[in-house]
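User: Run a structure prediction on this.
Assistant: Running it now.
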Amino acid sequence: EMFKFDTKVKRMQDYDWIIRAAEENVVVFAKEAMVDVYLQDDSITTSDYGKLLDANLMFLDKYENLFDRYPRFHVKLLDRVGFYKTELGMEASNEYREIYNIEKSVKSYSRWLASKMGLLKTIRRLRNNNLRRSGRS
């Protein structure tokens, strides 16, 4: 049962699988790619930030029991949720505040403050506009 994909997970199933496998087993990562990936128009691997946000919010809920033991994992999930929310024009200061409460670093405080002031949204909007103008979006 442990090594079956969770059918409730709609995105990032491989992440979910490896997290569950690593809870009770030693996991080793290879430096070189072991598979070829082919994306199609109907592929679930997309840059749809709404769906990626939903998946990461689900992970925050599903793996809350691991956060005390693995605070960096918690921070990474919060950071991804904050990023996707910001990209979608949503408020993300709560996620960045929680990261600061875990890390207590100048960097995390700066990101929380920038998010609270709306600067992260502005920076990302400017970056996206520049990418579109240069044809690299």
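The longest helix spans residues 71-87.
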